[in-house]
Amino acid sequence: MITAAPAGPVFLDCLTGGHSRCTRADECRCRCHINGRGEGWAQARPVSGGSPASAGGAPAPRRSATETTSAAARAARLAYAFYGVAAGGAVIGQTWVAVEHIDWPATWPAWLPVVAVLPFAACLELLAMALAAMGDQRQRAGEQAYGFRVFSAVVAVLAVGIIVVGHHREPYLAAAFGVLSGSAYLLWLLHGAARRRDALRAAGLLDTTTPVYGVWRRLRHPVWCARAAELARAQGLGLHESLAEAQRRMRAERRRPAIAQAVERVVRADHADPLMAEIASATLDLDRIAEVLERRADYDGWAERLAAALDPRPANRPDGGTPDKPAGGMPTEAEAGTPTPARRGTPTPARRGTRQKTAAVRPSHTASWDVPSAIAVNHRPEWCT
């Protein structure tokens, strides 16, 4: 189980991402050493809320530490190679400008001005990188390092400006050497920032990366994706787990105010004194009561009750009764021998002959109305009155 790193020193090797090279692993408080891991906190963090398996039960796919280290090493080698070539081109461009624009003694050979200017041109290019590296180191320690960063940017702008202004008569040379100088500096900054973030994540000082939710999903559901990303960073959830948890919490937040309002009405109704009702409603945490009610709700019981009420079969009525026999086992009037009292609309024996004589005179729809009503009244049980 991965635990949080206690307070203590995190040494330079772990801050720069070199956990396996740390010579004081027994004293280092980096999370990778606390948890007995050396591949970095970004690879050691739990998946789906700390479970080693995904929601489907299968282990979540994860790149091994060797693959991650190899990929990072290849990217670093390419970056350093490009930086060397770009910085060399920028130094050549600055040396060219100095040789052309400075009045050198005529007795000097052609190579001597180049040798005299080359160290200073290289110093100007490397000074920006050195200041950026020092600022990056202070940022890893938790500082902002505004002085180093601003000084580095000023030196870089000065170096690019010298190249562009010195070759202004030749746009190709100005563009080529200026781009080389600027791109070398920007590449150094980006590479240093990436390594700093990895080191801070490994030390537990920076949030982990979130799943990729896609541009289309973020445009359609910005709030949903933002909540899912927040849960993914806080709980280490995956893509689908964070989306499902965010949707569940958003639904609960929309439903909970209605429950809290109902609880407030109940609390106020329980006190006759309006002042006491106001104090009680202001003192109680209505949202907390609503949350407890949500947890204690018997969803299975309500589902069974509604399912029984919606069942069309008479034998499964919730009250146990049927259309022919009332609930509770009460006998019908026919079983008890109780005569059915005459009601309005029910033909009696004395009047039956009169109705039969007048039935031929009445319209057909009147006769069809009397028969069902009479049947319904004669078969109406006593408990329905």
What does this structure look like?
There is one protein chain. With 385 residues, this protein is an all-alpha fold. Among the domains are: 135 residues; 64 residues, no CATH class; 43 residues, no CATH class. 64% of the residues lie in helices and 0% in strands. The chain is built from 16 helices and no strands. Helix 9 packs across helix 10. The longest helix has 37 residues. It is elongated.
Architecture blueprint of SSEs:
Elements (H helix, E strand, L loop, with lengths): L11 H4 L15 H4 L6 H4 L20 H37 L9 H30 L5 H21 L4 H32 L12 H6 L1 H14 L3 H31 L4 H10 L2 H11 L2 H12 L22 H4 L12 H11 L4 H15 L7
Helix pairs in contact: 4-5, 4-6, 4-7, 5-6, 5-7, 6-7, 9-10, 10-11, 10-12
Assess the beta-strand content as a share of residues.
under 5%
Radius of gyration: 43 Å
Uncertain parts:
1-7, 37-62, 357-385
- The percent of residues in helical segments reads 55-70%
What is the number of strand segments? 0
Order of helices and strands: HHHHHHHHHHHHHHHH
Count of DSSP helices? Answer: 16
Whole-number mean pLDDT: 74
